[in-house]
């Protein structure tokens, strides 16, 4: 969470603070709590209805798990709002500090990994549309989700098992106040931060590569010709759908590129700034005196890094609101269901059987339709 720093002219027990965070965090975390809670609960409702319609397959599994991770973070926000309202004084038990800190960590890095999985799924749908349309690969989705949860919880294990609170004068800090730790403990904290930065860099590189390949595949595909030989045209119906195919293809490509921009946008806005600042900030906060990690930071530099770090933490929390936006661009079925559900809500209905049936019929006919035209990027 937010962190301590050192005053170069005072002892290493001085907690150098960023006072503006005590206004910044309560305001933004309150917004994230209200909007994020209702948005993600609504997403779970939609995904449940799509499950009943047997629609979307593998990507629905990723979206469901990502939504659960967002809700874990949202449910922990009231504790952090109270913490910052009290000027950085944790009044709850150490267990709650460990739990809410773990939720913060798990949400952010589950989000990063699930967005990477969604990028892979969309890359597969674009490059192998026939395979994507004819099978849902849910088993693969369950295995990948289990690996993501397992690896993220394992990385969060130190937060769950070590004391999270640190005394600082008349206040009790939660996951900050490390200036009172030994040099050995400080170096352990620094190593953990840089390991996390390295892992994020690898995942971010993979996401950029997948989305670059998606964009290249979409932009390099030739539009279908306006006419075909009589041997190709099996019937007037097939011919009609073939003539319409260029327009449909342009729409699919446009929506796929929107999804690409949404995923990369979440990474660049929410996660990249934090991981750029995190390394220098950690060294400035810890103020390691000798050996590895020792940096002769100027007071103004340390304060600037602290202030920047508070802002990047707010940006990281913003992902719980932006993730539903990614879902909207990720699949046509998700967008269509939202539009249909809004119409039904205006009529006083809920998750209607007719709407689910229609989506289910579309899913069953999708592979049949794609066989009758030139292979195009599959959009579930």
Automatic annotation (TrEMBL):
Segments of this protein annotated with the region Disordered: 355-380
Predominant localisation class: membrane
Key words, A-Z: Cell membrane, Chemotaxis, Disulfide bond, G-protein coupled receptor, Glycoprotein, Membrane, Receptor, Transducer, Transmembrane, Transmembrane helix
Residue stretches spanning the membrane: 20-47, 59-81, 101-120, 141-160, 190-214, 256-276, 311-330
GO cellular component: plasma membrane
Domain G-protein coupled receptors family 1 profile intervals: 39-327
Record keyword Cell membrane present: yes
Topological type in the membrane: Multi-pass membrane protein
Entry's localization field: Cell membrane
Short name of any one Pfam family annotated for the protein: 7tm_1
One GO MF term: G protein-coupled purinergic nucleotide receptor activity
GO biological process, one term: chemotaxis
Subunit structure: Interacts with ARRB1.
Family affiliation: Belongs to the G-protein coupled receptor 1 family.
Protein name, entry field: Platelet-activating factor receptor
């Amino acid at each position: 969470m937010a962190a301590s720093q050192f005053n170069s002219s005072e002892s290493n027990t001085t907690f150098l603070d960023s006072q503006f965070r005590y206004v910044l965090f309560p305001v933004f975390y309150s917004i994230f709590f209200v909007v994020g809670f209702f948005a993600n609960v609504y997403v779970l409702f939609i995904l449940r209805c799509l499950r009943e319609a047997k629609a979307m397959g593998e990507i629905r599994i990723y979206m469901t798990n990502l939504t659960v991770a967002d809700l874990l973070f949202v449910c922990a926000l009231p504790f952090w709002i109270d913490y910052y309202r009290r000027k950085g004084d944790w009044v709850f038990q150490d267990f709650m500090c460990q739990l809410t800190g773990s939720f913060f960590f798990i949400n952010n890095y589950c989000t990063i990994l699930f967005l990477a999985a969604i990028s892979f799924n969309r890359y597969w749908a674009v490059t192998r549309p026939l395979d994507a349309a004819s099978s849902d690969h849910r088993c693969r989705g369950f295995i990948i989700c289990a690996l993501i949860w397992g690896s993220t919880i394992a990385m969060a294990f130190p937060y769950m098992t070590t004391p999270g609170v640190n005394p600082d004068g008349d206040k009790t800090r939660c996951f900050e106040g490390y200036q009172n730790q030994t040099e050995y403990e400080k170096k352990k904290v620094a190593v953990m931060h840089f390991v996390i930065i390295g892992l994020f860099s690898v995942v971010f590189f993979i996401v950029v590569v997948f989305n670059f390949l998606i964009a290249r595949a979409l932009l390099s595909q030739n539009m279908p010709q306006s006419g075909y030989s009589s041997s190709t045209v099996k019937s007037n119906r097939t011919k009609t759908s073939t003539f319409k195919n260029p327009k449909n293809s342009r729409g699919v490509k446009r929506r796929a590129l929107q999804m690409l921009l949404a995923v990369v946008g979440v990474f660049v806005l929410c996660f990249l700034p934090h991981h750029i600042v995190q390394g220098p900030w950690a060294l400035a906060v810890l103020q390691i005196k000798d050996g590895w990690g020792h940096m002769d930071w100027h007071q103004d530099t340390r304060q600037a890094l602290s202030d920047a770090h508070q802002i990047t933490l707010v940006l990281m929390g913003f992902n719980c609101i932006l993730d539903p936006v990614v879902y909207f661009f990720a699949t046509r079925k998700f967008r269509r269901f939202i539009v249909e559900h809004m119409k039904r809500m205006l009529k006083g209905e809920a998750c209607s059987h007719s709407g689910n049936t229609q989506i289910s019929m579309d899913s069953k006919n999708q592979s049949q339709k794609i066989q009758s035209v030139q292979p195009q990027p599959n959009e579930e």
